[in-house]
Amino acid sequence: MENIVLNSATLGFVISLLAYEIGLAIKKKWKLAILNPLLISILLVIGVLILFGVDYDSYNASAQYLSYLLTPATVCLAIPLYIQLDVLKKNVVAIMVGILSGVAASMGSILAMAMAFGLSHKEYVTLLPKSITTAIGMGVSEELGGYVTISVATIIITGVLGNIFAESVCKLFRIRHAVSRGLAIGTAAHAVGTAKAMEMGEVEGAMSSLAIVVCGLCTVVGASVFAGLL
């Protein structure tokens, strides 16, 4: 099986898409938050690789085209933001303060946990970009000298958990304002969380899309500052 994957330019790509389609079908049928399509597709791909003895490098070589789509997919999130431009203009100060607070809280918590658990500097900077989209997070991790593959894993896990628990957390803390809900989800759980925000409403989706971009830019700058604190 590994030879087939190595000799195919797109088999890994096809396996990934099929796994995600299966995840979507399962979520649509049972409608449970825990049945996140991305989480299911990850587990299915891991299962296939283990079952057929295919190593990650072989799989990644034929699935790398998915990575090329990350940046344009992120840029496309500007469309719902443009539709809700009036909402942005009316709440611009609150929006910027909220996003900056979220970025500071994210990196501050990583710093605190790194100190508490005795992480090395390399392990610490690996976790700093956990709440920004993969397209930006990979570059931040590489620039700071972290483990890029582990950064990708933490970014995905953060997004999946955000997607699963976003609505429940908003209900628990009685966050009812659409702008607040969208900003919180986008700042904490990037693009995967934004998918959930879009399900919750148009304003939530637009604000979450904005949060992804601004949070990413702020983290690029802030991560360099926080990296020097440990």
Number of extended strands = 0
Percent range of helical residues = over 70%
Largest sheet: none
Shape: globular
Count of helical segments?
14
Number of domains: 2
Give me the secondary-structure category.
mainly alpha
Distance between the termini: 45 Å
| Strand residue percentage | under 5%
| Uncertain residue ranges | none
Order of helices and strands: HHHHHHHHHHHHHH
Q: What is the alpha-carbon Rg in Å?
A: 18 Å
**pLDDT averaged over residues:** 88
State the main characteristics:
single chain, 230 residues, mainly alpha, 2 domains, 14 helices, 82% helix, globular
How would you describe this structure to a colleague?
Its main location: membrane. This is Murein hydrolase (TIGR00659 family). GO terms for molecular function: hydrolase activity. With 230 residues, the chain is an all-alpha fold. It has two domains: 2-68, no CATH class; 75-227, no CATH class. Helices cover 82% and strands 0% of the residues. It is built from 14 helices and no strands. The protein has helices at 2-7, 11-30, 37-51, 56-63, 65-68, 70-75, 78-83, 85-90, 92-117, 121-127, 134-144, 148-172, 178-200, 202-227. Helix 13 packs across helix 14. It is globular, with a radius of gyration of 18 Å. The N and C termini lie far apart (45 Å).
